[in-house]
Amino acid sequence: MKVLVPVKRVVDYNVKVRVAADGSGVETQGVKMSMNPFDEIAVEEAVRLREKGAAKEVVAVTIGAQAAQDVLRMAMAMGADRAILVRTDDTLEPRAVANVLKAIATREEAGLICMGKQAIDDDMNATGQILAAKLGWPQGTFASAVTVADGRVEVAREIDGGTEVVSLTLPAVITADLRLNEPRYASLPNIMKARKKPLETIEIDSLGIDTASRLTVVSVAEPSERKEGVKVNSAAELVEKLKTEAKVI
Ligand code: AMP
């Protein structure tokens, strides 16, 4: 079975995100970029499946600019066998990303797509679900445990109030939650080895698919500043403050 792992290049999670001067989005110029953390978890899970013998090959794919090659190299340093860059300078919304991933999954005859539950730049949490619907494949979202056996994949899902276990027929789409695993550290020798692994570039236009935006960003703004809070020592003091200071009761 071939596992396809979509990975996105995003502003590094340690960087304080700032709104671009023209209000069109988030500032990315001169900002450290990295693989989306949930996608690192997805790569780790796919590599573990191959190591256990449940998968034969792990293919990382990203849709983005030439610079996004760095996250593909990182995925290969973590253990992915090869990578595909679908090159575009446009920022695509989840529906368009799902259209592209569907085309790649079909071309690659993927048996499983293992991806992040959300990208930390736009927090959409939508691409996996749209992709599963477009492919007509079952989906196991918010995965905290994954087991592949007998042509099925069992996924423990994090839901409000606990864990739900679903059993999916393959091929399927899984989206990784935080507790699924702890991604391995890419060692220097593996980073060097990853430089020699195959990385294919496909121009997005050559796929001939619909990537038009249906969404328009009206404006992007910093959240308004919040007043500093105070700590109270007792419930009685809280009630007093709500009455006399906040005047809400
Ligand atoms: P989102 O729905 O935008 O929160 O993203 C969910 C997941 O979709 C991410 O964790 C990635 O696995 C995948 N994804 C989103 N955008 C891209 C992209 N441009 N290239 C590759 N994978 C992506």
Automatic annotation (TrEMBL):
<comment type="similarity">
    <text>Belongs to the ETF beta-subunit/FixA family.</text>
</comment>
<dbReference type="InterPro" id="IPR014729">
    <property type="entry name" value="Rossmann-like_a/b/a_fold"/>
</dbReference>
<dbReference type="GO" id="GO:0009055">
    <property type="term" value="F:electron transfer activity"/>
</dbReference>
<dbReference type="Pfam" id="PF01012">
    <property type="entry name" value="ETF"/>
</dbReference>
<dbReference type="InterPro" id="IPR033948">
    <property type="entry name" value="ETF_beta_N"/>
</dbReference>
<dbReference type="InterPro" id="IPR000049">
    <property type="entry name" value="ET-Flavoprotein_bsu_CS"/>
</dbReference>
<dbReference type="InterPro" id="IPR014730">
    <property type="entry name" value="ETF_a/b_N"/>
</dbReference>
<keyword id="KW-0249">Electron transport</keyword>
<dbReference type="GO" id="GO:0005524">
    <property type="term" value="F:ATP binding"/>
</dbReference>
<keyword id="KW-0813">Transport</keyword>
<dbReference type="InterPro" id="IPR012255">
    <property type="entry name" value="ETF_b"/>
</dbReference>
<dbReference type="GO" id="GO:0006355">
    <property type="term" value="P:regulation of DNA-templated transcription"/>
</dbReference>
<dbReference type="GO" id="GO:0046395">
    <property type="term" value="P:carboxylic acid catabolic process"/>
</dbReference>
<protein>
    <recommendedName>
        <fullName>Electron transfer flavoprotein subunit beta</fullName>
    </recommendedName>
</protein>
<dbReference type="InterPro" id="IPR002078">
    <property type="entry name" value="Sigma_54_int"/>
</dbReference>
<comment type="subunit">
    <text>Heterodimer of an alpha and a beta subunit.</text>
</comment>
<comment type="function">
    <text>The electron transfer flavoprotein serves as a specific electron acceptor for other dehydrogenases. It transfers the electrons to the main respiratory chain via ETF-ubiquinone oxidoreductase (ETF dehydrogenase).</text>
</comment>
<feature type="domain" description="Sigma-54 factor interaction">
    <location>
        <begin position="58"/>
        <end position="227"/>
    </location>
</feature>
